[in-house]
Amino acid sequence: MLIERPLSRRALLRRTALGFGSLGLYGLLAERSSLLAETAGSLAIRAPHFAPRAKRVIFLFMHGGVSHVDTFDPKPRLKQDNGKPLPIKRELTFNEKGAGALMQSPWEFSRRGQSGIPVSELFPEVGNCADDLCVVRSMVGDGVDHGAAMLQLFTGTFSFTRPSIGAWTLYGLGTENQNLPGFITIKPTQWQGGDKLFGTSFLPGSYQGTAIGSSSMRVDDVLAEPIAHLAPSDVTTDEQRYELDLLSQMNARHTEERRHDPNLEARIHAFELGFRMQMEAPEALDISREPESTKKLYGLDQDVTRDFGWQCLMARRLAERGVRVVQCTHSGVEEKWDHHGDILRLHPLRAREVDKPIAGLIKDLKSRGMLEDALVVWSGEFGRTPFSEGADGRDHNPYGFSLFMAGGGVKAGSTYGATDEFGYHAVEDRMHIPDLHATVLHLMGMDHERLTYHYGGRDFRLTDVHGVVAKKILA
Q: Which end of the chain is more exposed for a tag (fewer CB within 10 A), N or C?
């Protein structure tokens, strides 16, 4: 008589090992199949979760970190206690040894427009647009160095490589114009994050931002490079179409052999997009037909404003042609706004480079009726300390800083949140980076908790497990 004994755990695992392997294989194949399907139709328009207030975003990035206490967050207490030691605990700073006493702003603030928003004399032209601005004075980040702060601002985290907010936006909404990329970054910086600031990470490669030039290039060089590649003079359109069709056939066989590698599918898709861009991109990049009055509005007639003025004008031209996300970067061979010293000379210089172009962009969008559904966001990766660094500089400050938005469903002529009396910590209506991302996605018609992507066995989202929509700033 045989006696049945219960299986031990070791025996169970031994007998079912292949079953576990099959389950894992099915999961990988399902993930690959999903990724392939999304890659194939990645730029198709998708319905938002709810009615959007904004259809496109223009992000104006001030590389290096603008001093909020010298621009959009006046602090009378700094003037009162100028030269005195900081009376509260000093947080981790980038250069602890250089920390000095409290330093008042050398620039005067005045209330601008009917809204009366205080704006520094550093930004007279932007001040003229005060009634269109929503100034957030309570931003908070976690990175005390540029690299970490920039990665968090653009991707939501500085600990891992994650998709950029532009890539998430395309993943959620697609793009309106199939002949242009849905996400374009103009003159992006090449360091402190580099292409991760507009990358896709685990999302399909077709959601990646398309770079026009780099921060170290002159405008003339940027203009010459893409047009030369997009519209080659030695072949006709029919010849290019024939070459691309032949290449597509070869790639199709290759991807069959590789069992539909999603990365290869993304590259094939990029070839097709590149061909379609030849029909529209050269015209979009050509500003010669813009009226002289428009060029002057953006400051293209002046050397000091020409670079960023061209970026802002390009942002408007791309946005009106259906590009979903446009990033403009005020940078160069170094961080433009990182003034650990000589801030009295350098902050005014940097402000002059961007003040008129930013105001020109807001005015131009408004005159064309585009400001209603185009969201403009202006920010650096953090602010500056209310105390000095050395004799005449300010250190990095992610604990409380300012940005502003315009259009796209935000409350015009308003301020939101507050820092303490020194401008050091955000203390009222704090807006952490995930809250900013949640709010921008909300304005674009997306619920940040529903915008998820399954990868590596779990669902990911831009805001991770954080993020609260700042409903007080919604119009």
A: N
